[in-house]
Amino acid sequence: MTRIILSGALGKMGKAITTCVANRSDCEIVAGVDIANEECSFPVFKSFNEINVDADVIIDFSHPSVLADLLEFAKGKKIPAVIATTGLTDEQIESIKSASTDVPLFFSANMSIGVSLVSELAKKAAKVLGGSFDIEIVEAHHNQKIDAPSGTALMLADSISEALDEKPIYEFDRHSKRMKRTKNEIGIHAVRGGTIVGEHEIIFAGPDEVIKISHSAYSKQLFANGSVNAGLFLVGKKPGFYSMKDLVNES
């Protein structure tokens, strides 16, 4: 039985993960971390240094401000961690990579296997189409999402960038410019509204044809299931920086 510490336990994703784990027989949540005060089926601590229970893995769906304490706790206790919080800075992502030399860490901007597949398809398309097609990414989420563009949109852009001969510029604010679109750019656009769980579309626009690759999420349970699977995957692994690609390849 894999014992989980759930960071962001009382948030929307935390509750989705709690529901997911309750329906499984191979894992249990032994503690949570959250600044909110709400009755729960397991003990919830205000910070990581208050935790007094043993665990096998941490799953984090919280806030970027929590990351430093999480990494310190994970390294100190030698507990692997799945970090699925979005809105992290480049410096914070580098700190995850640095900490992964001491403890297994799994990081992904999106915990969906489907999105991982879309990422690989987009990379393949970019390699085949080269510089002859303009590339745009449009993402849509609910009106409560704080960060924009989404971490997934940036992940997709990075994946495409790897396949291009020349590193592209990410264009987030085209409306402020009075000039034609340059060839060496990827436009990234964010839509916020209603209760949209998550939609991502990659547009390859070329001469006389348009190719689109898209993914739509209809429930947060999709990401909850992915994060729990990642947690179980990580237990017993050597220190290192893991991603959805590693999980998919082992499946």
Structural write-up:
The protein is of the alpha/beta class and 251 residues long. The protein is 33% helix and 26% strand. It has helices at residues 12-22, 67-77, 90-99, 113-129, 151-163, 221-234, 244-250; strands at residues 2-7, 27-33, 44-45, 57-60, 81-83, 104-107, 134-141, 169-171, 185-192, 198-206, 209-217, 240-242. It has a 7-stranded parallel β-sheet, with helices on both faces. It has a 5-stranded mixed β-sheet with strand order 8-9-7-10-11, with helices on one face. α1 (12-22) crosses α6 (221-234). The chain is elongated, with a radius of gyration of 19 Å. The chain starts with a strand and ends with a helix. The model has no long low-confidence stretch (mean pLDDT 93).
Outline the secondary-structure elements:
Blueprint: E1 2-7, H1 12-22, E2 27-33, E3 44-45, E4 57-60, H2 67-77, E5 81-83, H3 90-99, E6 104-107, H4 113-129, E7 134-141, H5 151-163, E8 169-171, E9 185-192, E10 198-206, E11 209-217, H6 221-234, E12 240-242, H7 244-250
Parallel strand pairs: 1-2, 1-4, 2-3, 4-5, 5-6, 6-12, 7-9, 8-9
Antiparallel strand pairs: 7-10, 10-11
Uncertain segments are none
- How many DSSP helices? 7
Q: What's the gyration radius in Å?
A: 19 Å
Return the average pLDDT rounded to an integer: 93
**Number of DSSP strand runs:** 12
Basic shape: elongated
User: Helix/strand-derived class?
Assistant: alpha/beta
Estimate percent helicity. 25-40%
